[in-house]
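Why Sulfate transporter? Reviewers of the renewal asked for a concrete example.
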Amino acid sequence: MDEVSKVTETPLAPPPLLARRARQPQPAISVVKSKLRKNLTCSASKVQKTLTSFFPVVRWLPKYKLKEYVWGDVMSGMIVGIILVPQAIAYCLLAGVEPIYGLYTSFYANIIYFLMGTSKHVSVGIFSLMSLMVGQVVDRELFLSGFDLNDDPTSKADSFNLTDDDPHTVDLMGIPCSKECYAISIAAAVTFLAGVYQIMMAVFQLGFVSVYLSAPMLDGFATGASFTILTVQAKYLLGLKIPRHHGYGTVPVTWFNIFANIHKTNVCDLITSAICISILVAGKEIQDRYKNRLKIPLPTELVVVAGATLASHFGKLNSRYSSSVSGHIPTGFIPPSVPAFSLMPRVALDAIPLAVISFAFTVSLSEMFAKKHGYTVRPNQEMVAIGLCNVIPSFFHSFTTSAALAKTMVKDSTGCQTQVSSLISALVVLLVLLFFAPFFHALQKCVLACIIIVSLRGALRKFKEVPAKWRASKNDAIVWLITMFATALISVELGLLVGIIFSMVCIIFKTQNPKFSLLGRVSDTDLYEDLEEYTGLTPPPQVHIFRFQAPLYYANKESFLKSLYKAVGVEPFLELTKRRKAEKAKGKSSKQAKANKKNGDVFIGPIHKELDFHTIVLDCSAIPFIDSSGTATLKVLVKEYKDIGVSVLLACCNASVIDALRKAQVFGKNDREMSSLLFYTVHAAVFHAGQEHAEAAEGKSEDSLF
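Here is what the prediction returned.
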């Protein structure tokens, strides 16, 4: 049986071209008018729907199952509140502001998210990464305004009012402002802008921005930032008064300064740090090891804070050993004030990464726990909620907030059912604000630094996962490493930018150098797969089936052509050039043959080698889209191979690819060649190629008879 009959032995009638649905595009003006009419009309039902959408609490709170939910919500809210208090005070070291503002931030954020959030489990409030990024802006602006960053304000009675000993003040909106006043003003200004950016992103439906923040990039960014946080807090463990470095290279410069001043270590702070870290780590390890047996998390941070505060107060560690303490934390609330608009042009760019990262962490956490518990969240409403968690508290002397993984996991593990738990956490913070805040006066800063550093255990443990990441995906591991090193060694903001750009470059590199393969047939079926990946496949006789696993667009069209030429072994332009040279040589040889015939010599002219295939089938099932450069490439490809007697057929194209090919007239005018070039399956294309070749062979044999 010859090769042609092998192809035609299983006839398969190609299906007719499917009829596309007719879609009449509406004029742009009518679309705009209909949208305006829909959005600007007002009715009672629409107002109610808008309010319930903006305040989701109105929907779920009336359906609250008191007996079923209250115990879990109260327990999780109290436990998270107890954890939140020492963390709120501690993270103010990162943010460069007084401890009272961390409590304000946690209180207002929990209240607002309770009203506006769509997640039942997310804990929104003070977050170490956000605090670090705010603190870098605060310290930079304090430095540029001439404040002494070595100044220790713990002896001041009220951080928001001026005292006679203030060595330096600046004019802010017509009011003289001390260092502490200026610090929280900067933090509030950058927080206000971050919230405005987030609300604008929600209004213009820009939530897709978070798509560019891949999981490996976010993990690497968080780990690099955690290493920066550890570095920034290391000086407090040793009791060193070293100003925070401004600009690039915070980690190496800070460690150099620490070792250069190591002889100035405060022994009291060092001993306290060693004891606190030991207790905190032991508590975390016990918690991790026996988490299935323990019904509630161990309040290790609260125990350490209480014990250290008592030891510092009765031991008079501040006066005897010059140990740096938190200082006076007033009770009650400071009157609200408008954020300083004069500062906003200086921090406008700094607010962008804060807005993006805060939103990304909040949405990713809310979606993760929503999937776990079987409900849905609305990312756009989450963006509005977290935006207002920044905008509104900025009027009440607060700084940037975000969802926090550790506290969210605590809420989930302690039986949280709804956001009522956030309300309970806010009430716990309120009790501290109203009654217990002054008791933290003697709390050493090194204890707060210990709480921050131990809380980074989860992020720093990511280093152990690098080998597993490398085995699972080298690309993801490289993205993680590049982002982590850029964040830790250059700066947090640039690390984020480098991570995003490098992730996108990796995607572009993948599409520019995708996998390509030749396909073979699976025994007597109509299935075709990669010849290099599977055994027992049979390539169709005189037909090459080529699969390109990437979109075909301007950036990878050359890669597509090179991979195709390499796979089939024939480049049409070079083949055509060879044939033209052979034709010229044949003309010369015929003249020479006649001359040799007269002389009686035998002459053998150049012999042209025929191709071992007559058709290329392009399997387009792995091509999601194609642009104008891609269609032009295919159009030229079909013509060039046709010039050397090879047909190029397309199979398994999706609707968008077909539309692009039709617009580019790849199938000729009025798609007259569409039925002979486009097929819905690879097998239909192979069958058509066999039939066409068989008919062409029969035609040649008939011509030879005459």
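Residues 282 and 300 are 9 Å apart (CA to CA). This is the kind of structural detail the renewal will allow us to pursue systematically.
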